[in-house]
Design goal:
about 375 residues, 15 helices, elongated
Length: about 375
C-alpha cells in the first residue's frame, strides 16, 4: 500500500479496487452503486484481508447528493449481488466507530489511490464535495443523464489509474489522452528565435488537437458497445470532468515524443505553463522566466512582444497587437519554449488531476516538478 506523504499527515487518501469497480459495472450498476462503493472504501481503515467500512447509507447520501432512500437501495443492490456483506457486530463496541460493511473483494486487487477530498470536499467545498458535483452537474449531449454520470465517474477513476506526478507531471500521455502543441509563427513569420552566443533557441507554439486513444476509452468505458459510441461518450465524459474542474491542462516540454518511436525513454524537461488560475499560484512553470531572460538579453523586443499594452499606455488603441498580447489586449494563445538546438524537445499538453492523493509518489512528483523548473531557471540566469 502507498504511504502518506510525510508533510500530508495520515489518512488523507484511500484506496479503491478498480477491478472490483469494473465487476460492479459489468453486473449492471449505475453511478449510484459505483459512488456508494467508493464511499464505503473511503470508510475502510486498512484494505487487505478484512476491508471493513464504517460508512453507511447516511455517509453515501451526504457525500454524493443522492437521497437517503436511494443510498439504502444501492446498499441493498450491492448486498444482493454479494459485493458487500454485513459486518460482524462485537458486543460493547463504540457505535460511532462500528464497522457496518465488509467489502467482499475476492478478486485480484488493482488499487487506485484517491484523495479524501474527492468524497469529503475541502474548505468551502465541504458542502458540495466533488462526487456530488458529478451527480448534480453532469450534462449530456448524447442521451440519458444516468449514462453520462456513470461515464464521468468511470472516466475519472481510470484517469486516476494513470496519474503519475513523479515521472509525467500528470496523467501519463502514453495512456492515450493528451493535447498536441504544434509550431507557430510570431508577428514576423518566425518560428524560432536564436539565443545568440548559446546553443539554445526559443520555439513558438500554439495549441492543437486533443487526443484520446480508443484503447483508453474502451478500458474506461468497457460497458459500452460500438467503438464510435465509446469515442463519443468518452469525449463527453472527459469534457464534463474538465468543465467541472476535476482536471486541467499543463503545457510541458519533454525530451521527445512520449508516443513516438522511443517514447518509453521520453521524459519531461519542465512545465512551460499551467492553464489554471488557481493551480498557477502554487505550481512551478517556466514561461515567465523564458520571456524575462530573452528580454534581458535583447533576443526579444519588449515593445514588439507586448505592443498592444505599450500602445495603450501611450493612448493609442486598436492596434493589431504584439507576439504575446494580441489585438484588444487578448492573449494570442501562442507560447514559447526553450530547448537545446541540437538535442531538441517536444511540447505536449498533459492533464493534471486537481484532487490528488497525498501519497509519497505525489509528494515526490511535485518535488520533481519544482526541481526541473529550478534547473532551467538557473540555466536561464547563466545565459542572461
Amino acid at each position: 500500500m502507498q504511504e502518506a506523504d510525510s508533510e500530508s499527515g495520515k489518512g488523507e487518501f484511500f484506496a479503491v479496487n478498480l477491478n472490483q469497480i469494473d465487476r460492479i459495472v459489468d453486473a449492471g450498476a449505475g453511478v449510484e452503486e459505483v459512488m456508494a462503493y467508493v464511499v464505503l472504501a473511503r470508510g475502510v481503515n486498512g484494505r487487505r484481508n478484512t476491508p471493513l467500512s464504517t460508512h453507511g447509507a447516511n455517509s453515501i447520501a451526504k457525500r454524493t447528493g443522492m437521497s437517503y432512500r436511494k443510498a439504502e437501495a444501492t446498499l441493498d443492490w450491492l448486498v444482493k449481488l454479494e459485493f458487500i456483506r454485513k459486518a460482524p457486530s462485537p458486543e460493547n463496541a463504540n457505535k460511532s466507530k462500528l464497522a457496518r460493511w465488509l467489502l467482499a473483494e475476492e478478486i485480484e486487487p488493482n488499487d487506485v489511490y484517491l484523495a479524501n477530498a474527492l468524497t469529503d470536499g475541502i474548505g468551502r467545498g465541504k458542502n458540495n464535495p466533488p462526487l456530488m458535483r458529478i451527480y448534480d452537474q453532469t450534462k449530456s449531449k448524447l442521451g440519458a443523464l444516468a449514462d453520462a454520470r456513470l461515464d464521468a465517474m468511470m472516466m475519472l477513476l481510470h484517469l486516476y489509474r494513470y496519474s503519475d506526478m513523479q515521472d509525467c507531471g500528470g496523467i501519463d500521455p502514453r495512456a492515450g489522452i493528451y493535447r498536441q502543441w504544434v509550431e507557430a509563427e510570431n508577428t514576423w513569420g518566425e518560428k524560432i528565435t536564436d539565443l545568440h552566443g548559446t546553443n539554445a533557441a526559443i520555439y513558438e507554439i500554439k495549441g492543437g488537437d486533443e487526443w484520446m486513444f480508443i484503447k483508453f476509452a474502451k478500458e474506461a468505458l468497457a460497458y459500452i458497445g460500438p467503438d464510435d459510441e465509446i469515442s463519443e461518450r468518452g469525449w463527453d465524459a472527459f469534457n464534463n470532468l474538465h468543465r467541472m474542474g476535476f482536471l486541467y491542462e499543463v503545457t510541458q516540454v519533454w525530451s521527445a515524443d512520449p508516443n513516438g518511436k522511443n517514447g518509453r525513454k521520453a521524459e519531461p524537461l519542465y512545465t512551460l505553463y499551467v492553464h489554471d488560475r488557481h493551480a498557477r499560484e502554487s505550481e512551478p512553470y517556466l514561461q515567465k522566466e523564458i520571456h524575462s531572460a530573452a528580454l534581458r538579453r535583447g533576443d526579444m523586443d519588449e515593445y514588439v512582444e507586448f505592443a498592444h499594452l505599450g500602445m495603450e499606455k501611450m493612448g493609442i488603441y486598436g492596434s493589431e497587437g504584439g507576439n504575446i498580447i494580441g489585438g484588444a489586449g487578448q492573449p494570442t494563445g501562442r507560447f514559447r519554449y526553450i530547448a537545446n538546438k541540437k538535442a531538441g524537445a517536444f511540447p505536449i499538453g498533459i492533464y493534471r488531476l486537481r484532487f490528488r492523493p497525498k501519497t509519497r509518489d505525489t509528494g515526490r512528483g511535485m518535488a520533481a516538478e519544482k526541481q526541473r523548473v529550478d534547473f532551467w531557471i538557473n540555466s536561464l540566469k547563466k545565459i542572461s
